[in-house]
Design a protein that fits this description.
about 30% helix, Rossmann fold, alpha/beta, 7-stranded mixed beta sheet, globular, about 250 residues
Length: about 250
């Protein structure tokens, strides 16, 4: 995936996603944030949380001297309910067990913490070309357009997974509507499709972008937790005053 991002379509996709992450995470507040995977996209660079980490898989490498930690996506070295934000740039589709990765994200997020996910859309021109290329490869022809690693996870399928883990989808969008072309020259010729795609065929963008919030159901108290003490029935009590006259009163309870 990292090598593919250096190709013309990879740079086109990376630029769109970088802008999408920048505009989204800048308004998410807290103390601890984690980007899991794909260091070529600096998904947290516009976020202002004081503690931000880049988590990489054992087979990934961070370019330059960016500080990072190495961890399996299904076993993150963080306590439960400790992170305010987790961003997953293509991390689920590149994971060997995307279900386990998403469950681990749910574990480490605080209640009302947010996860931001990007992924390749199988219902797009890019997805169609990838499926066609894989079919031809089985016959010994051609090569794949998208990275060989990873599998498509559709936007609707992802939303179902999030719902099962008590996430609430807060926002979603698609991007990159240009055809699956390999050269920068031909990609530039179809720039007009980006201007029209969001309005006329939004769900066919090559990439989707989802923001979800972790919801924790509260415990509902049945009835009032405090019971008023019952009033004791009292009878008149004779009281002798200084004049040796007998009066009656009721004790206050």
């Amino acid at each position: 995936m990292q090598q593919w991002l250096d190709t013309p379509p990879g740079r086109y996709l990376r630029d769109w996603e970088q802008a999408a992450f920048d505009g989204t995470v800048s308004d998410i507040f807290g103390y601890h944030a984690l980007q899991l995977g794909l260091p070529d996209i600096e998904a947290l660079r516009s976020n202002r949380m004081p503690h931000r980490w880049l988590g990489l898989q054992p087979d990934e490498q961070a370019r330059g001297l960016r500080p990072h930690l190495v961890a399996e996506s299904h076993a993150l070295p963080f306590e439960a309910n400790s992170l305010d934000l987790v961003v997953l740039p293509h991390s689920l589709e590149l994971s060997l067990d995307p279900h386990a990765t998403l469950r681990e994200v749910e574990r480490v997020l605080v209640p009302d913490g947010k996860v931001v996910i990007s992924g390749l859309n199988p219902a797009s021109l890019w997805g169609l070309r990838q499926r066609r290329a894989r079919a031809l490869q089985k016959l010994g022809f051609g090569h794949e357009f998208l990275p060989e690693a990873g599998e498509f996870i559709g936007s609707r399928r992802l939303r179902d997974w999030l719902r099962l883990l008590n996430f609430e989808v807060e926002a979603g969008r698609f991007g990159c509507w240009r055809p699956a072309l390999s050269t920068e020259k031909w990609l530039a010729r179809y720039e007009w499709m980006d201007r029209l795609g969001e309005r006329w065929w939004p769900i066919f963008g090559a990439v989707y972008f989802v923001v979800a919030v972790k919801r924790v159901r509260g415990v509902r108290l049945m009835g009032s937790p405090f019971k008023r003490p019952r009033k004791m029935a009292t009878a008149p009590v004779p009281v002798t005053n200084r004049g040796h006259k007998i009066q009656h009163r009721k004790d206050a309870t």
